[in-house]
Write a structure and sequence with these properties.
The chain is mainly alpha-helical and 466 residues long. 82% of the residues lie in helices and 0% in strands. α5 packs antiparallel against α6.
Length: 466
Amino acid sequence: MKNDTKINSYNFTKGRISRGISRIAIPSCLENVCWNLDALVEVYWIGRLGGAEYLAAVSLAFMIIFFLRAVGFGFRTAGSAIVAQKIGSGDALGAKFAAAQTILLAFIYYLCVSILGFIFSPFLMSLLTEDAKVLSLGISYLQTSFLFFAFVDGIFTIGHQFRASGEPRFSLYGQLCSPIISFFSVPFFIYGFSGFSGLGLCGGAIGVGTGRLIGVSLMFFIIFTGRSKISFGIKEICPNFQLICQIVKIGWPAATQNLLERGSSLILLKILSIFGPVYLAAWTVGNRVSLLARNPSFGIQAALRTMVGQNIGAKKFDRATDSVKFSLLALIILMGSIAFLLFIFAENLSKFFGLKDDLSIKVATLCLRILSVGLFFEAIFRMILGAFHGAANTKPPMVVEFFTKWFVQIPAAYIISIVLAFGGSGVWFAMSGGQILSCVFLLLWYYFWIKKKGIGSYSILKNKEL
């Protein structure tokens, strides 16, 4: 009990909202920087390994992995909503059970996907490209990535539960390990050192996976040694089917939303592959840079998910909605500045990641500048998404993503790039346009939802059995 007093020193249901947001957003933002740094380190070294075909292979394989991680996102989103609301209501034991069952459910899923993904990697890659060299490279890289799938995504599952409990520093500790290890392991496994000849492209996946493995191990050490509010043991990890059903009930719309979003990205990537490895390489650079640039929005999204969830649990609904207003204002200023800088320095970034010939640099620069426009609106969408998820209202984002991605973005990409002959740039225009629409629709949905029902209308605490 002495340890519990110490770790409960800060109460997110009291005090200044700005302080509560910053206490989670800053470490969460740093955490996302760490996650994207090892991905950028990988792209940096692979870009020097063999040119556009290598980056294209990584891009396609990454999107397959990214798509399959969507279900895990649904589990951890549901789990973090339950954990946050339990912590806010003072139910520490309930929070431990929720975290344990979420992690158990997610890792069972990761294990199944790892096995099936490794077996069907050739088939999955063949769906996205017909280029013989890109296909061969992509299969090897994808199969290697599946060996580390549980650790690459598992680090986020555990991190979500730490942030929901108001302890983002523990998640940050695990995430810090990843880029530190990857900074050395990625070039080592790709190029070799002192008698070790290196593994080429596959070494990149091994290097990143090694960093994530160590990060996950550190997180489990924190949990099993009782240092966290959500620390659990054998009793909590044993399957609780009632709680698992609740996690699935809340999580399936979030998982579906991500499947719709990432599934559309795969189709867009398939359209983009028609225009050759240069456009895929440009997308690889543009996508990784955009993910890094979005880090402040991910940090604020994580903070808002916790603030909304814990304050709903404490029945402080006005404080929950005020947290959304503060986050929106902060994000508009911050992401507006970042998007502007990304637009200005797009060419410099393209050169930094190993693109040397004039055509590749020109295409990558155009890609970055188009994506920078959508980046601003995507950041706001993610922030509002955090408010919905913290309130355990996961269906609206699913509906918005289904409409904008599948009825607007994909048809627009085909029409602009192929019918109107804009080429690969038409895909990027469609991406940014879809991000703008998603942002506008979800903002409107949030406004009318709050006005009509109130932010606490989907509280899981209404279920007395949980």
